[in-house]
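Ticket #4471: structure output looks truncated?

Reporter: J.K.
Steps to reproduce: submitted the chain below (752 residues) through the standard prediction queue, then opened the result file.
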Amino acid sequence: MRKAPGWRGMPRIGHSPGMVEIPASLPDAFKRAIAAYQSGKLVEAESACRSILQAEPSSFDALHMLGLIAARQGRFDEADRLIGHALKINPRFAAGHLNRGNAQAALKRYQDALDSYGRALAAKPDYAEAHYNRGSMLSELARLDEALAAFDRALALKPAYAEALIKRGRVLQALKRTQEAVASYDLALAAKPDDAEAVYSRGNALWELRRLDEAVASYDRALKSKPDHADALNNRGVVLRALKRPDEAVASYDRALKVRPDFAEALGNRGLALADLNRHDRAAEDLARVLAINPAHEFARGAMLHSRMYCCDWRDFDRELARLEAEVRAGKPVSHPFPFLGLSGAADAQLECARAWVGRKCPAAPQPLWKGEVYSHDRIRLAYLSADFHDHATSFLAAGLFERHDRARFETVAVSFGSDASGPMRARLEGAFHRFVDVRGKTDREVAAMLREMEIDIAVDLKGFTKDCRPDIFAFRPAPVQVNYLGFPATMGAEYIDYIIADRIVIPPEHESFYSEKTALLPGSYQVNDSSRRIGARMPTRRESGLPDDGFVFCSFNSNYKITPAMFDLWMRLLAGVPGSVLWLFVGNDAAIANLKREAASRGVDPGRLVFAGRVTPEEHLARHRLADLFLDTLPCNAHTTASDALWAGLPVVTCVGTSFAGRVAASLLNAAGLPELAAESLLEYEALALRLAADTVALAALKAKLSHNRATCALFDTGRYARHIEKAYETMWQRQRRGEKPTGFAVEPLN
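Returned output as attached by the reporter:
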């Protein structure tokens, strides 16, 4: 929802070169008209011109001047007509064609304007302003190479033409020649050091080059020249957010909105920054305002609903969800793919959602970097790309896998574009790979070019469309095989992603058509787990955790956005059916706590029976699971890492098998843990199962004993065996590619 750095711009309506000064030979009446026009006395100038036309109806000068006056007053249709009439009298007047083209450009009749500038140049080939305006129209028509040539011709005639240098830079940006764009802006600033547009555009180019601190400095410089430059304030906020400075980003958006209160881009961007700060109630308000300004604003509706879900604000939930799903199925760009997973379990709609996002935000590059070359390597070169090589759920799951890759057969590379925060996990990960490369300062194209230069055989995207993702790296097609794995439990809808790592439960055969990728199915579960994860040695007391001294403890440590009204209805029925029981939930934000308590009361349940768990260390979090009796899963999006945490800590999980990858993960985990009986086929069955286990202490104890016994031997927590399975999948992909075969779905047979 950031405002994309633009390259388009309208030519200005202005004086023709022949009207800057008043030639002595002109009649006195026309001299008076020009003087009035130049001093802004348009009514007086118009009156003088009409007096001339009464005496001389075919006066070119009077008709042309009336056209300029009409343009200055915003009456562009009349300007076009009047100047066109004048040019019938004097068709060789180059400035007249220029001014008529400007009026047509203001009317967005770009081809007509282009024709007018062509006639101006036919009359005066060395007319720099006409070349410049022609370049502007070619830009509007997306004829970028021709536009660049037009600006170059203008600059050959007028080398210090700052406006042409700025527009030329914007075209170069659109052509992805961003370094050259910066050079063009630098030349513009050499000619006009305080030009706010040149510095602003330079900031946009630096942002694209990921020279983020320099981009902020450029926006600050632009704002010194023009403090009310709303676009500079907005884009400054975008870069500050990318620098993980969301408070400063919000302040920058605030300034932009003071200048332009209905600036939808700044409102949307402020909403996203507020969401980063976990102020989802305010974020939802901003996004709702965006939709009030423009109901079709791209991707705002999904973001608004996502922030509301983080607050457990379920107003008009059914109606809003139905509208969102309908618009997604119609191919409209209404939601980022990740928020949609928590709102809809429709796998076919998730595919449409992803395709709409890819088409607008990260389409395949016109020229792939890998062009079919066959590499000759002793080992398969395998690169994992992520922003999460630090204390993050993905690393908690996968660190053991990275360490266990067979170094005789695989050469592994970590490509990190996220935080470089030091700590035990970061140190562990840096030692797990053959190479660990920090690429935060590189552009997507530069990272892709690096992968191509390294001759990576298989590039694995661990992010998909989750926070801080960079799918454009893959859009450049740097590797022969590209894989969607672990981070994003859905299709990416992108032609440049060949495979998705899955299993027979998360993607059953009847769902494969909902994935643009081919399926690589692992035995057991697709999700890796690290069997060396430590559980805190000390288990806190119930009182320390805010729990009552006795009574059954249901828990669900999923993020608040996964709780739907239907799930909460079911949970409240469970509390009503199990006297003295409580529901232990994760603390998301104050708004969510207040809303959940209100929703409980509205369903006849004492809000005091909801207990909220604060943040603790990962080891402490695993230990406190042992205070709970039963974990309750969510739909349409299940617990993923959260469910593995519970099972690893010895807490049984009750789930319901959903209709999409994200809603079938817990069933996959339970199957791999040897507890398939805890995966219900319907919410009615789920509710009955949870109620029965809460009432039958013997049955629940038996489940816990079974889970404890399975923990040491089950597929879910056998990291070494998992590594051999996924390596077999990678080898199958690599062998098919080496044989020149297209990607196709396959299943890895279980290994001993």
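Triage note (M.O.): checked the attachment and the full token line is present. The first strand starts at residue 380 and ends at 386.
Status: closed, working as intended.
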